[in-house]
Amino acid sequence: MTIKTNTLKSIAVAVALSCGVVSLAAIAHSTHAYENTVSVKALENAISGEHRTTKAKARDQYRHPVETLSFFGFTPNMTVVEITPGGGWYTEILAPALKGTGKLYGAHYPDTGADDYYSNSRKKLEKKLASNPVYSDVVLTDFTPLQGSKLAPQGSADLVLTFRNLHNWKDAGVEQVFKDAFKALKPGGVLGVVEHRLPAGVSVEKAKGYVSEVKTIKQAKAAGFRFSASSEINANSKDLAIYPKGVWTLPPSLGLGDTDKAKYLAIGESDRMTLKFVKPATK
């Protein structure tokens, strides 16, 4: 059953009033708590869906999707943008959680017709989206690294998300993406970033694929965002970040194949920063 946000608010107000609670603060708290419950339930239903493979679900323990999306303030009635969905791991969760009540844009590399990573990645994603009705409402837009991209209609998004992408873009690319996200978001909208975290005092040359948290915050602020909060939801203290093939030595890539496989499986997926930024409301 689909429950609209206004209905949720009405129910929360009715519950508060029936309990003799009439202050605006109490009503607001009841509304927020009820919306939170509905949001978590929508995510849990999506995560347990039959459209997700056993292999995909095995990664939930490392990626904490309910906790991560809840930290970013996700609700099922939002307009959400996922930048470069890749294989669609998070799309498998976001699409059904938003279907019928919100909207999901997948800002992915365009298909230029060339036989390269970018075009092939787009074709693969389009094939995935066509494979199951659960993805029927997803709208794909074109994202090109280092170039200004319209991720979604300007000022339309409540939440823009990027998961483990920053290391693929040079600093200039990250700065441009943050500018694009700022344009796509409504005032008060949220940019959510999850990325392999570079340990303090370690160079990117030694820890390939890892990104500085301090630099990321600085880049987002330069694009106009306000740093709101960080979370250790996706932290992994076992990850020391210096490996023969960088972050891709760890699962799921396991870049060394069977060499020391048990060792790297025991470490698990990378230590990740989880950062929340807000587009300031207009005066």
Main structural class:
alpha/beta
Q: What CATH first level would be assigned?
A: Alpha Beta
Report the C-alpha radius of gyration, rounded: 20 Å
Strand segment tally: 7
Largest sheet: 7 strands, mixed
- Separation, N- and C-terminal Cα atoms: 38 Å
Superfamily at the CATH H level?
A: Vaccinia Virus protein VP39
Helix content: 25-40%
Q: So what's the overall shape?
A: globular
CATH architecture annotation name: 3-Layer(aba) Sandwich
Low-confidence stretches: 1-5, 26-31
Structurally, the number of domains stands at: 1
Strand order of the largest sheet: 3-2-1-4-5-7-6
Strand content: 15-25%
User: What's the mean pLDDT score?
Assistant: 90
**Helix segment count?**
10
Write the H/E string, N to C: HHHHHEHEHEEHEHEHE
- Output the CATH topology: Rossmann fold
Provide the fold topology.
Blueprint: H1 5-18, H2 24-47, H3 54-57, H4 60-63, H5 65-71, E1 79-83, H6 91-98, E2 103-108, H7 117-129, E3 139-142, E4 157-163, H8 171-184, E5 185-196, H9 213-222, E6 226-231, H10 261-267, E7 272-278
Helix pairs in contact: 1-2, 2-6, 8-9
Describe the structure.
The chain has 283 residues and is of the alpha/beta class. The protein has one domain (49-278): Vaccinia Virus protein VP39 (Rossmann fold, 3-Layer(aba) Sandwich), CATH 3.40.50.150. The protein contains 10 helices and 7 strands. It has helices spanning 5-18, 24-47, 54-57, 60-63, 65-71, 91-98, 117-129, 171-184, 213-222, 261-267, and strands at 79-83, 103-108, 139-142, 157-163, 185-196, 226-231, 272-278. It has a 7-stranded mixed beta sheet with strand order 3-2-1-4-5-7-6. Strand 2 (103-108), helix 7 and strand 3 (139-142) form a beta-alpha-beta unit. It is globular, with a radius of gyration of 20 Å. The relative contact order is 0.11. The model is unreliable at 1-5 and 26-31 (pLDDT under 50).
